Amino acid sequence: MQRSEFLNSAEKIGTFTYAAAYAPIRNAQNETVAYMGLPYYANEADYQAKIGLFINTLINIYALVFVLIGVLAVFLANQITNPLTFIQESIKKTKLGQKNQPIVWHRQDEIGSLIKEYNKMIAALEISATKLARSERESAWREMAKQVAHEIKNPLTPLKLGVQLLEKSWKENDPNFERKFASFNKSFIEQIDSLATIASEFSNFAKMPDTKLEDLELLPVIEQAIAVFNTSDSIEIVVLNRTNRKVIILGDKDQLLRTFNNLLKNAIEASEGKGKCAIQIRLINNNKYVYVEVQDNGKGIDLVLQDKIFVPNFTTKSSGTGLGLAFVKQAIENAGGTIEFTSEINQGTTFYLSFPII
Question: Of 134 and 45, which is predicted with more confidence?
Answer without folding.
Answer: 134
